[in-house]
């Protein structure tokens, strides 16, 4: 039995009626990559590159970054690696980037905005990713996108750096959908983004206007809120219009109560915490698309996240 469970954990994943769902892992270090492969991850849906930038006195060099990304790509043995560009600022401050005091850091200089504020930092990171081999294994994902214009600006920088490095092949460039603006205009963004990945943690924070770090509100910042689910549906719809892969890399992808709803809303890639992968895969295999759609439809009409959780077949987790 253990061997059967182990084999199932490593096989590709589809619903009982044959809808392919990719189950990827969120990573924050090279050690995580090994754990993820051992747990059956089909790839990495979110590499939080902040681990290289935090708790030090200066930014890592391009060479250091390239070596680290290469080690993670190698550990993934050919599986796709989605690297998120630097997402510092807000709740993730670093000493060598003295962001002027802000009254609302969550609404301030963070995510991709830092990359535009310090373009050399963004360019060095893009070059480091472009150097990873084999070409094509890495995809680049941008955090905190709010407008199509931001994606265009990064695409232009990326093409410039790519040509300067003599890399002929284009690199997939996708966005995180974690601002309400991105979710509402997903159809505009999907016209030019190679893929979309929904960051349900920040999407919940910004949709509900509740600080995800506030202990008094923590219990209420639940991404299963029907308002957040409606935006997830909108993002999936926008992505589908252009045939883009739409995934989830926020906490909901590891939440067994949410997985059937996400699939019902049109999500086809789940990037979970490595330890949750075997359970997520087992659950996906027990579902049908029709049942997931019906559940999602009901979830969108509930009065609270708790009411949504109460609908989940397993009672939630
Ligand atoms: C998210 O916001 O859902 C996300 C995946 O990004 P992070 O948790 O790193 O902000
Ligand atoms: Mg986020």
UniProtKB/TrEMBL annotation:
Supply the alphabetized keyword list: Cytoplasm, Kinase, Magnesium, Metal-binding, Phosphotransferase system, Sugar transport, Transferase, Transport
Gene encoding it?
A: ptsP
Specify whether Magnesium is a keyword of the entry. Answer: yes
Q: Which GO terms describe its molecular function?
A: kinase activity; metal ion binding; phosphoenolpyruvate-protein phosphotransferase activity
Q: Which residues of the full protein are shown?
A: 521 to 837 of 837
Its recorded name reads: phosphoenolpyruvate--protein phosphotransferase
| The organism of origin for this protein | Phenylobacterium montanum
Keyword flag rRNA processing:
no
Q: What is the lineage of its organism?
A: Bacteria, Pseudomonadati, Pseudomonadota, Alphaproteobacteria, Caulobacterales
Q: Name one GO biological process term.
A: phosphoenolpyruvate-dependent sugar phosphotransferase system
| Family listed | Belongs to the PEP-utilizing enzyme family.
Q: Which GO terms describe its cellular component?
A: cytoplasm
Q: Which domain of life is it from?
A: Bacteria
Quote the subcellular location field of this record. Answer: Cytoplasm
